[in-house]
Amino acid sequence: MAGVQVSNLSRNFGAHKALDDVSIDFADGGFYALLGPSGSGKTTLLRQIAGFDFPDSGRIAIGGESVERVPVERRRIGMVFQNYALFPNMSVADNVAFGLSVRGEAKATIASEVQRALDLVQLSKLGGRRPHQLSGGQRQRVALARAIVTKPRVLLLDEPLGALDKALRVDMQIELKRIQREIGITTIFVTHDQEEALTMSDRIGILRDGRLVQEGPPEEIYDSPKSEFAATFLGDANIFRGETTGVGIRLPDGTAIAARAGATLAAGAKASCAVRPERIRIAIDSGSADQANGNVLRGQVSKRIFAGNNSTYFVERDGQTLKVIVQNTGADRLAAGQEVLLRWSPKSTVLIAAN
Amino acid sequence: MAEHVATGSRSGLRSALPLLLPAYLWLTVAIFLPLSAMVFFSSMTELPLSGKAWSFTLENYATFFSERLYLTLLLASLRLGLEVTLWCVVIGFPAAYVLAKVLKGRSREAIFLLVILPFWSNGLVRIFSWAMVLREGGILDTALNAVLPFKINIDVMYSYPAVVIGLVHSYVPYMVLTCYLTLQAIDDSLIEAGRSLGASRLQMLRRVIIPLSMPGLVAGAALIFVPVVGSFMEPRILGGRTGTFYGTVIEDQFVAVFNWPLGAALSFILLAVVLVILALTSPVLRRAA
Ligand SMILES: Nc1ncnc2c1ncn2[C@@H]1O[C@H](COP(=O)(O)OP(=O)(O)OP(=O)(O)O)[C@@H](O)[C@H]1O
Ligand SMILES: [Mg+2]
To answer: Count of domains in chain A?
Structure first.
């Protein structure tokens, strides 16, 4: 097992920069999610690390060993594909055995290793089946068993759960995480699903147009996004745009919004503030608004979406629609048309420089 | 439940009948009628030309077994069929692989066109072109002697190899096409998965690609083997005196000797033998896949 270092990696397809100077340190034994919109270069990055494709410039090291020019066969990586890519002409056991048998391992070794891998993914009874006789989730487990049985240095997964339905996906997320912890393998996981990225990974990297936008632990990216893109791509955020004042920003209509202390920007520069919908408290506007403890805005409820354990209110304010998520505590619900006050703490407000 | 399904499919069949009718009519006219006519001919003593008397007999079938020549020629034709089929696999499969998995875009289309070009040229033109290439003092001979420092005599014309070359050239597109189709259907991610597990290209070929291509190989082999065993044009023109095969003998019965009954009987024996061979080999090949 080993960590992976990617430094200044670039890959162009013609004039298109699929990867543009990307540097990430994937820690040994960590679970890393690569997140980004379609076409942002996630697959391209994974393929460079796997060795299916080679970068135009930059370095890739696995366990400290430089591998940019090493083909995939000799990189000792394990790969799981979105469509599973199981060999249809072989049984489940033969699929899992494939990596060991092309290496010329002894028959007895192969048999016991395959059994161990199938036990690990809880498919020990299905070794004799053909891939087409399995369900989607079972195929995914076989693909995982096949990838890890050779004891690769890194496990790479390209949207492995994308083809599964929601309930099965949650099961597989837990399962995958359990297996990853059990064997402690460095894992790089590409996903479209931000919730998946948040719940499963130790660190997340967000890609956009081939560039790494932000990188860090899920909590850090969620609580302190460094760009509007990161704020809105990972989770939901209300964005206010205006000019910096020193402690926050001033909106075009003169309203001041105070932000968390720490970030300092030159006064008068363009900037924005991001606030998560669940950090805002909503109350009926009784006319007396005291500005003392935090940010306050007036608005009017335009819509409420009930989702069981919470409700999302859409609040109109000065031509902008703000989202507020309220836990279902059984308290009175607000109706559309209601004049409301929105309050939140400056600590929940992130100041972002305009890009 | 089962009853329900059964009635459902029966009514499905009834509504499909008008659609199937033209196909069945065509099959009747194009295959069933001529075949029945040939069965009829094969059991006649004489062609009923100019009012000659004739009766039913199995004599024509007996002729095959009484004269060793026919069996010898049949075996030679089967060997020819096997050899040509093997060469078509050896040439056609790699070509199909390159087309399906290596080439992309424009170059794929261009090469594809080149591969199936023989399909569109007239068979006789093709064969006579080979005759010009292969004969002594022909294109191959002249070209090789122009390049090589020593004098060699290339005279492949009127020989077994010439027949094989002509037939392989005519039939290799079938193999390329059937293999291309099955190779196309193999997802590239399977090959990538194999490589990520450490398999060399050769190991991938042997353990994944060839087994998955088996349906295409079997279909191509059947498409080639059957007509080659009965072929007569290539053997006659490119083989000369050495080009006597089972197919040429059948052709003789029809166009030269005018012994249609014997020709028809010999054809049916060939058909039976070929069917038996296909029936015996296809399960074996399928299991290998
Ligand atoms: N082989 C290729 N040739 C040309 N362009 C390519 C190639 N592979 C990828 N690209 C381009 O590079 C960009 C990044 O593609 P990539 O597949 O890495 O995106 P992705 O983030 O994985 O997207 P998705 O979430 O849709 O899978 C895209 O604009 C894509 O069109
Ligand atoms: Mg992708």
So the answer is: 2
Q: Tell me, what's the pLDDT at A76? A: 93
* pLDDT at A96 (0 to 100): 97
- Least CB–CB distance from B197: residue in A52, A89, A150: A150
Radius of gyration of chain B (CA): 24
Q: Is residue B53 part of a domain?
A: no
Q: What single string gives the DSSP state of each residue in A15-70? A: TEEEEEEEEEEE-TT-EEEEE--TTSSHHHHHHHHHTSS--SEEEEEETTEE-TT-
Minimum-distance CB partner of B195 among A72, A86, A89: A72
Burial of A249 (0-12, 13-18, 19+ CB in 10 A): buried
Residues 6+ apart with CB under 8 A from B252: B263
Which chain B residue has the Cα nearest residue A88?
Answer: B212
| Strand, helix or coil for residue A282 | strand
What is the separation, in whole angstroms, between the first and last Cα of chain B? 36
Nearest CA distance, A45 vs chain B (angstrom): 16
* Alpha-carbon span B43 to A183, nearest angstrom: 77
- CA dist A340 → A284, A289, A312, A326, A343 (Å): 4, 11, 14, 14, 10
* Least-confidence region, from A83-97, A156-170, A288-302, B92-106: A288-302
Whether residue A260 sits in one domain with residue A206: no
Look at residue B76 and tell me if it is in a domain: yes
Q: Which pLDDT value is given to residue B3?
A: 42
pLDDT tens digit string along A35-73? 999 999 999 999 999 999 999 999 999 999 999 889 999
CB A87 to CB B187 under 8 A? no
Take residue A231 and report the two structure tokens written for it: 């704020």
Q: What is the ipTM of this complex?
A: 0.83
CB A48 within 8 A of CB A123: no
Of B275, B221, B271, the residue nearest B85 (C-alpha): B221
pLDDT tens string B196-223 = 999 999 999 999 999 999 989 999 999 9
Task: Domain of residue A32: give its range.
Answer: 4-223
Count CB-CB contacts under 10 A for residue B251. Answer: 19
Structure tokens of A303?
């819509």
Identify the domain containing residue B256 by its residue range: 67-288
Min Cα distance B185 → chain A (Å) is 12
Beta partners for A320? Answer: A317
Task: Give the predicted TM-score (pTM) of the model.
Answer: 0.82
The total domain count for chain B is: 1
Who contacts A171 (Cβ-Cβ below 8 Å, separation ≥6)? A137
State whether residue A128 is helix, strand or coil.
coil
Is A71 inside a domain boundary? yes
* pLDDT exceeds 90 at position A228: yes
* Residue B158 belongs to domain with CATH number: 1.10.3720.10
- Give the full edge-to-edge strand order of the sheet including A339-344: A281-284, A339-344, A295-306, A310-317, A320-327
Look up the CATH number of the domain holding residue A69.
3.40.50.300
Split at pLDDT 50, 70, 90, the class of B4 is: very low
